[in-house]
Each structure stands twice: as C-alpha cells, then as structure tokens.
C-alpha cells in the first residue's frame, strides 16, 4: 500500500512539475489547436462558397476543400506539439513514409483520381455528351473522380477509368453521332436526281440532325457504279435504329423512282462454244 502511495505521489509530483514548467506552453498549444480547428472549418466553408459561385463540380469541390481543411489542421497540430517541446521531426518522417507507401500501393487509383480532377477542371465533355473512345461509345451518364460512365444504345453501362479518358484519343460529338454510308447507282442513272432523292429521304426523318446538315455527293467512281457518299448525324441513343430505318427508306425511294442499284454480275463462257 505504501509503495502504491509513493508511486502515485511520484506521478503527482511529476505532473505538478510539468504543469509548473510547461503550463504556458500547454495553454499556448491548446490555443493553437483551437485556432487551427476554426481556421480549417472557415477555410472549408470559404472554399465551398467560392467553388459554388463558379459552378465547379460538387464532388471535386468537396474533395479539394476537405484536403485543404485537413492539411491546415494537421499543420496546426504539428506546431502545437513543437510548442510543448515535443520533437516534430519523427512525425514529419512518419507522414512522409506513410505517404510514400500509400502512393506506391495506390499508384493506379491515384492516377485515376488525378485524371478525374483534370477532366473536371478542363471539362472536355459533360453529362449528356456523346463520346467515342477506343472501341467504346455512348452518352456520358456520370463523371466521377476515378471513372466515367457511358450508356450505349443497348442500355449497357460502360465504366471507363479516367486515366484512359485522359490518355486515349477522345471524340466528343456531343448529343449526336455521325453516320457515314454509301450507296451505288449505275452509270446510266442521273446522279443529280439520285442525290436529290437521298436528301429528300434524310430531311423526312426528324431524328436526323438539322444542326449538322446532311452531306450527300459522289464519293468515287467504281467499276460498275457511281458511289454516292452519305454523311448525316443522328442521336446516339437511337444510332443503329435510325440508320437501319434510313437505309430501308433509301432503298424504297430509289426503287419507286426506278433508280437502279447495281450488283456484281458474272459472265460464264463454255470453252469451245462460239460466242
């Protein structure tokens, strides 16, 4: 019992001595922490208002504001520790080691987040735009910090890492996607008449964009036909459906107007037979 009392008395004396010698430092450190906390909260609120006034992406705004808030508070804690005589060098070294380890372990994820930040700042596309990247295309459904989601005509959701969105060639046709096609007519036909009929068919489809006027003309002269090229824009959400309907309407219109569409023909001769 006496030993326990002596131990408690020893700790009490140490505490009194510590408070006597470092009371002002402790009070100063506490004040620094409190100021740091309020400064971090104020900075967070200020940044959020600033981002909101400039219509920044909400996800990016919260991410940046939270990081700044955390850094300010962490810096004030380190200053407070130094105020009471605790060496901050080990803390700085530990933070550096943890940051390096986390960076190496999350290298792929970090690059996706960094690419996401660049996408949100530079805004090469927005939700609702039509994108083509590699073998994928679709309407932008959602933009996150680490990935972007596209929805194609088959209602499939395509998730693409943002580092691919930054690193690959990206085609943004906004709400529409171009259809490039061709149709052949015989050399006996009047190409001007055929072009006029094709334009008439395209103008009859409300799905075909009026903002981007359809382009129809002679693409090339083939061995047995004049190739007429077509370029027109349709909504990505109904790309194939509209293209197939246009093709059928073109065939019917040319057929009704007696415009011949050539097809390969083969002439067979029997050896020894006089021609």
From TrEMBL:
Gene3D superfamilies: 1.10.287.1260, 2.30.30.60, 3.30.70.100. One of its GO terms (molecular function) is mechanosensitive monoatomic ion channel activity. It is found in: Cell membrane. Its main location: membrane. One of its GO terms (cellular component) is plasma membrane. Keywords: Cell membrane, Membrane, Transmembrane, Transmembrane helix. InterPro entries: LSM_dom_sf, MS_channel_C, MSC_TM_helix, MscS_archaea/bacteria_type, MscS_beta-dom_sf, MscS_channel_2nd, MscS_channel_C_sf, MscS_channel_TM-2. It is a multi-pass membrane protein. Belongs to the MscS (TC 1.A.23) family. This is Mechanosensitive ion channel family protein. It comes from Sulfurospirillum diekertiae. The lineage of its organism: Bacteria, Pseudomonadati, Campylobacterota, Epsilonproteobacteria, Campylobacterales.
């Amino acid at each position: 019992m006496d030993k326990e009392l002596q131990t408690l008395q020893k700790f009490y004396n140490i505490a009194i001595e510590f408070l006597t010698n470092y009371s002002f430092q402790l009070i100063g450190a506490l004040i620094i922490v409190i100021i740091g906390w309020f400064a971090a909260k104020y900075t967070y609120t200020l940044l959020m208002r600033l981002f909101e006034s400039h219509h920044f992406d909400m996800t990016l705004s919260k991410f940046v504001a939270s990081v700044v808030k955390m850094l300010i508070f962490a810096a004030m804690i380190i200053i407070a520790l130094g105020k009471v005589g605790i060496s901050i060098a080990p803390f700085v070294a530990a933070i550096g080691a943890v940051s390096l380890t986390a960076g190496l372990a999350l290298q792929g994820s970090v690059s996706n987040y960094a690419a996401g930040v660049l996408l949100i700042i530079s805004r090469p596309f927005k939700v609702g735009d039509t994108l083509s990247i590699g073998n994928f295309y679709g309407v932008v459904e959602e933009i996150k910090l680490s990935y972007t989601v596209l929805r194609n005509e088959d209602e499939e959701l395509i998730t693409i890492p943002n580092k691919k969105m930054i690193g690959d060639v990206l085609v943004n046709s906004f709400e529409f996607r171009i259809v490039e096609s061709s149709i052949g007519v015989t050399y006996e036909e009047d190409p001007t008449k055929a072009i006029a009929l094709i334009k008439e068919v395209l103008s009859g489809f409300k799905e075909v964009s009026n903002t981007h006027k359809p382009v129809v003309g002679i693409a090339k002269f083939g061995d047995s036909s004049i190739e007429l090229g077509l370029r027109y824009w349709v909504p990505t959400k109904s790309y194939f459906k509209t293209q197939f309907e246009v093709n059928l309407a073109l065939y019917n219109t040319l057929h009704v107007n007696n415009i011949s569409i050539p097809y390969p023909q083969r002439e067979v001769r029997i050896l020894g037979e006089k021609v």
